[in-house]
Amino acid sequence: MVAGTTLRFVLLMVLLLVSCGHVLDRIARNAVLPKGMGTYGCLFAAGADPYHDAGVELLFTVSAQAKAFDACMARYDPSLPWWVAIAWPAMLLAVAAVLFRLTPRWKTRRSRVVPLEKADADHGIARTLAALSATAGLPRPPRVVVDPAAASTGAVVFGSNRRPVVCLHGGLLTRRHTDPAGFRAVLLHELAHIRNKDVTLTHATIALWRAFVAVVLLPGAVYGVHGVLNQRKLSQPLELPSVTRNLELLALLVALVYLARSDVLRSREIHADRAALRWGADRSGWAFPAVAATAPPRGAVRRALASFAEQWRTHPRWEVRRESLDDPAVLFGLRPLPLLVTGAAATLIGSLLNETTSLLANSRSWDVAKALATAALVTGVVGVAVWRAVAHALLTGRRVPSGVRAGLWLGTGMALGELLVDDLTLSRWLPDRPAPLLLMVVAGTALVWWTAQCARLWAGAWRGRSVLPPMLLCLAGLCLLLAAWYAWWRESGVFYAMGQPLDFPAAAEAHGRFTVPEGFRSWYGTLLVNLLAESHRPLSLPALAALSLVPLLARLIRPGTGTPPWVRRATGGGDVPGWPPGPRPPRVRVLLQSALLGVAAGAAAFVGVAAALHARLVSGRLPTADHAVTYYGWVVLTVALAQTAAAAVAASRSSGHHRLPAALAAAVVAAPVTFAGLALSDSVSGCVRPLAALGQACRPGVAGPSWSMLPYLLGPSLVLGAGGALFAAAAVSGAGAVRQWRRTGTRTAAGRAVPPRPAAPPGEWQPGGASSAGRLVVAAVCAAALAVSVLATVPRLGDGRDAKASVASSRPAAGPPPPRSPLVRRIQVLAWYGHGGQDLLDRSAKVSLAYVRLLKDAGGEIDNDRVRPHCTALSGVARDSAAFFRVPDAQAQEQWEKYIAQLAAAGRLCKESTDRSDGDLLVQSVDSTVRAAGFLLRATARVKEVARVGEPFT
């Protein structure tokens, strides 16, 4: 099975590249862009209050004047050219490449090392090296140099996989005579690095770290400290949290990079030790009298601190290396700190990648690609680690990890990383609503739990020569689930943490974004709108299909007896009696019974609701919109209830290791059966009057009124049902864990061996699936589930509209600015004046004066060709003024609107007068211009009164 070291290196490299772009882009923007309040100035000019408004309030304010805000940002806080986002990571890679090339030359300089020939007069070392190279399977011995000044008894290999260089320390040459076995062990260890092809990986990691320190860390630290020490009084409350977070982010990046680097380097040492032992190295090579064996620390706190300190070491302690020769559990464990690092790194990569690549492309497809890329990195590290841990536990008889604790660490890291980027907090120290961050912890826990359960199920069922195919299938499912989660978080979760209420349509209506139609104001309507939006995301339904089908597909494998071939290969050819250890998954019959019980529960609920809705109908009248939405909301809830009940029953009838797969399998069976029943009842419910919830007539065999709506309800039902199934499985598993804890009084230790289960007697269900009839049922269920997912996707592909936007029928008039303190109101009006307002005022006065002066100087002789440019100028100023921000003061805005109306009328009348050569229209145009000038003067006076232009802030 793959070791995962290369995948961790890829995660490290991507984190370095995106963090480089983030840090250096901010430094460059601060150096080359115009000084001022930048984004905050445009926010104030739009009428927002970054001091006090919640993040979602800022977004609503900006979205109401999106074009004006974009124009303001393009002028006062413009983005750097697109190639800059590529230049910074390219520079980091270039510096790392130079260091990678120059480091071997520096280490092999003549003043430090000598060729082996000069220190090996009898060629004994060369002969030993040649023999050991052949043992290690190398085509030829590597280049060897000697560092006479190094008194240690070790060696080091550097360079690259193609041109490795082994440097023997001076003390090792002496050890050759006093401890030949130890000398051979050291050489075999270094040759193992070459055979494992980790030389390039190791020194590329070191070169990247050093380049990061020189290119990113030092400039970023100087920039951050300078930003903290040079805060402007007016913007300090806004900028200080962000600047401080940048320093914290830099510190976290250093910690993440160093921990990831140390993890890569430690793993390679353990792998090299075990390879050397396989090739005949004597165990005495790892026994150093100077390194006394220390007893493990006592107490949970001391053990945790010791484990934490171990994660920062680039080389494992000798005690760990000696223990790993007999038991490589250290290579297969799910350690908390690396999982925390991976979760935080994934969040940072997703956020910083979104920030640094926004200029390269900005579309839904690009967002999906970024979510998939981030998910692939996490899957490669966490998914592979979980599979290795599960397979190793099964092969060695240890307790199989559930994945819950590992998922908690991963989710905690994801939430921690989110706190250190500006996506949630903007100008605040903490998000307006921190509670949604717990969803990240829940998501990480659920996904790793699902991965561990799938790995347990597939590893026990698989009969092939290699476990790689099922592992890749499960990892593909995990990647889809993670990508769907990251996409949802970026598009919805972030806004909930910024203060967006669950009733988004009502909140948007309150801010003047659109009007919510009648029928969508109830909680049913809110539920439908939110679920439609989530199900219409590109990755939602494929991820839900993977969630249920990946574990269910394991039931299609033909049962077998004896030890699977891949287990024999992993254990060196031996049989493992009673494979796989532990309890068996439930039979297909149990899953079908659970699904039918869930369907019955959903049907009973639906019958009761249909009868209640029918009683509310007014005879002779069509159902109201609210009535119809309530009905369709209960259709969604019925399917979700059936899936949840089926999952709960299946989980309660399964063992701990199989509760989640069993719950998901029962839920995926219940979904299409429930929908089929609803479709059938819709056709015949008119014949049973108490159940005719929509007042339909009795027409058996004819599609009922809800048939056209069912495809639109499939997606929301599947989303809600999947959540219910996960919750049911978690609740049953938690209750089972509590009962077991009460019975035993303690939990089983993680490393305690599980006694092997005796071989299954004839006729008992064997690992790998069910009978032929059972496999046929499973195949039919998988096909039905795929058909339901495809059917639910069709409406999304057909209209392509966002579900939340579909409730908008009209836009209400914008209300007056909300109450603000005098200081904030002054800053807003001053920002409006300084971020384009003054230019418009001056431009309007200039255009109006030029127009009036032209007509005054004409002396009654009007040349239409000379007038037309002034008509165009008047209309242009009116159009630009209308497109600009509303004045953040009610009195000034009232005069501003009247000015725009009069100036637009003046431009229109001016054009008509030149087209018709009508002097009366020209006079009317002049009158409108004069009136516009009067309104403009009053608006300007009010703006200057509120803003107190020219006065200092106190």
UniProtKB/TrEMBL annotation:
The GO terms this record gives for MF are:
metal ion binding; metalloendopeptidase activity
- TM regions (residue ranges): 82-102, 201-223, 243-260, 329-351, 371-391, 437-459, 471-489, 590-611, 631-650, 662-681, 718-738, 776-794
Cofactor(s) required for function per UniProt:
Zn(2+)
What are the GO BP annotations of this UniProt entry?
proteolysis
Q: Where is this region: Disordered?
A: 743-768, 801-821
In this protein, which residues make up the domain named Peptidase M48?
A: 125-327
Could you list this entry's UniProt keywords, alphabetically sorted: Cell membrane, Hydrolase, Membrane, Metal-binding, Metalloprotease, Protease, Transmembrane, Transmembrane helix, Zinc
Q: Does the keyword Zinc apply?
A: yes
Name of the protein described by the UniProt record? Peptidase M48 domain-containing protein
Q: Which organism is it from?
A: Streptomyces mashuensis
